[in-house]
Design brief:
Blueprint (H helix, E strand, L loop, with lengths): L1 H28 L1 H18 L6 H28 L5 H29 L3 H21 L4 H19 L5 H58 L3 E5 L5 E4 L1 H7 L3 H4 L10 H17 L2 E9 L5 E12 L5 E10 L1 H15 L9 H18 L3 E8 L2 H8 L1 H18 L5 E6 L2 E6 L6 H19 L1 E5 L2 E5 L1 E8 L6 H17 L5 E3 L5 H16 L6 E10 L4 E12 L3 E3 L1 H9 L3 H21 L8 E5 L2 H4 L4 H12 L6 E6 L7 H13 L3 E7 L3 H9 L4 E4 L1 H6 L4 H16 L3 E5 L4 H9 L4 E3 L9 H9 L6
Parallel strand pairs: 11-12, 14-16, 16-17, 17-18, 18-19, 19-20, 20-21
Antiparallel strand pairs: 1-2, 1-5, 3-4, 4-5, 6-8, 6-11, 7-8, 9-10, 13-14, 13-21, 14-15
Helix pairs in contact: 1-4, 1-7, 2-3, 2-5, 3-4, 4-5, 4-6, 5-6, 5-7, 6-7, 13-14, 14-15, 18-19, 19-21
Length: about 775
Amino acid sequence: MDAKAAAERPVKQDEKTALQAEIINMLFGSNLKSFIVASLVAITLAYMEYDQVNNIILFGWCVIFCFVYGLRFCTTLYFQRHSANYSTDYWLNIFRLSTLACGMAWGFAGYYFLSETNEVAHKAFITLVIVGVTGGAMVVYAVDAITSKLFSGSIYLLSLPGFFTNETELSLAMAILLAVYIVYISIASTNLGKKLHENILLHHAAIKQQEEIEKLSQHQRIHLDHTPMGVIEWDLNLCVVSWNAAAQEIFGYSQDEALHQHASFILPLDIQHQVLQKMHKLISEGNSTHCQNENLTKEHEIIYCEWTYTALRDSENQVVGLATLVQNKTEFKKNQDEIQYLAYYDTLTDLPNRRLLTDRVTHAIHSSSRNKSYCAIFFIDLDNFKNINDLHGHSAGDMLLKSVSTRLKTLLREEDTIARFGGDEFVILVENIGETLGKSKKIAELISNKIINGISDIYSIGNVQYRTSCSIGICNFLGDTLSVNEIFKRADNAMFQAKSDGRSCFRFFDEKLQPSIEFKASLENDLRDAIFDRDIIPYFQPQVNHRHELIGAEILLRWQHPKHGMISPAEFIPIAEDSDIIHRIGTEVLQSACKQLAIWQNNPETAHLVLSVNISARQFMQKNFVETVLSSIETYHCSGSRLRLEITESLMLKNINELATKIEKLRSYGITLSLDDFGTGYSSLSILRSFPLDEIKIDKSFVDHMLENANDAHIIRTVINMSNHMGMTVIAEGVETEAQEAFLAENGCLNYQGYLFGKPMPLEDFSDYIKKPLPLH
């Protein structure tokens, strides 16, 4: 209660001060009118009593009246000019004293004038004057009870003896009636004063409330005008009722131009009906939504905007309009489209690239499984393509590739996928070519002959006439009996068989090529028996910053096979991922990483190092994956903030909700996540917006060619800029030359991994590497 009283005390003090100030203003504000009325009454009284009262007394009273009221008039003028120089208590006391003096002046008039006359009419007139002056003053001064009582009391007490000078019953009755009147008028004045006080306090509260409302309104206006997002409000008829500065910046219309405009004024004609229908639906249902669509500026320029709609409701929960937030995403979408094109299409031929082809083959596998219809992959390689590059340069080779791609488009159906796989290799996907293997092979044979005959021709390459041909490998597949990689591999093997058989021909995948498949199966069996840290050996590749300071390492596995020697992870990791072996190996790698981090964190020289671990999509999507990671951290008591999990873009195309939940839980324990092999497109941009990643790793394939290939360089610059803008670190892998490092540093990538700084090495060698200072290039 004490705390509550202490909190309320300043509020009550403010109210008291405001009340007192208002009382003083009212009292002094009425002085001029009171002065005029009092002067008129005094003149009338003096005139009427001129023959009844001794002239000396009358003159003396007039002097007193003029002095008192003149002094009061001067006080009022002084107050109007210097009221702020003194406290409210000072001015209130001054007014009360001046009022007492005025009351005494009227009291003297009552005493002397009543004493000097014996006529009943004059006594009644003087009494009437006293009553009138007292009543008027009590009303005017009702706002301050003390002032009112000082005035009425001084008049009555000084006038009272005048009623008893003649000692008549009438005089006594008049005195008594005057007393009753003054008591009555005092009570009425007191009640009026209370009402006035209440009204003053209510007026003060209303003013404060209005000030707060105006302050809040001004604050909201400033916020709206300075927010980087456009804020627009619409009424029920979809007309603009609010339009901030950011909206003007986006659309070009000023607030005056935009107000009362219908929503259609910023919508292109072709989408007006659709968008307006959506807005009306939001109003009718009272919902919120988020969307993106094209819009129209004042200059009739098409821009791409991101909108957030929210239904506005009044105090009765009735929808009264729409509030919208809008951002101009034109540049962002342009970057998205450009990156999507660079990632999914070959810039030379405008054909889909390997990534888009992979997506379409994956889709074809699912479709084939449902339709029970065969599909075929045609792996095409131009014969002797190297000759044209050697004889006439790469520009001539590029022209040939463009011509061949154009020719292929004329030979196949629109629904067939023609992709440039890389170099002089093209891959074609044809779906629905038969419900039996035999029929599908016959159709594939017809298609292959058509392709070979269509491509085998003379091409005009500049001033050169060049004849080319092609070799084709074919893999027919039904449903999900084969993985995408296996399909490509079989078609590739068949293509090499066609080349071995003399070129300019086609070959189906032959079971005679099975030895390589059996070798893969043998490796899979051996991999199941491989023991971690003996057969599967963790290697560590250094990661450094632009000052060539060691910041961490990535664990890379090597398989020491008892028969085949050292096997690269490029060979055995796909085998592991195609089976359940990846789960065991992945868990062992995580445990090894946590164990090593625990050792490092006890050494001041290595406590800062971050250890990156590659996580396969299958491993990450295990239901207990997060628990496995946390269990490894807890077992070895290492810091989660030093463990970095590298995930691939393909993982992001799976169950997004489950993925987001796992990422959030891992990051809540300080574990950081890196997007491995980044630089492959639009889906990555979606990832960057949807998932809280900490780092992206630029793929080695881009680093290899960025100094010669303008497209790769452009992709790298775009990735670096967007990542830095989103607050993520960037690291490039496969940095092998000083020129590559310089290019990356110049464009804002300050972390590197590659042979320039160190090859993957066993733990013992890496421990020695840590102790040696890195050379500055």
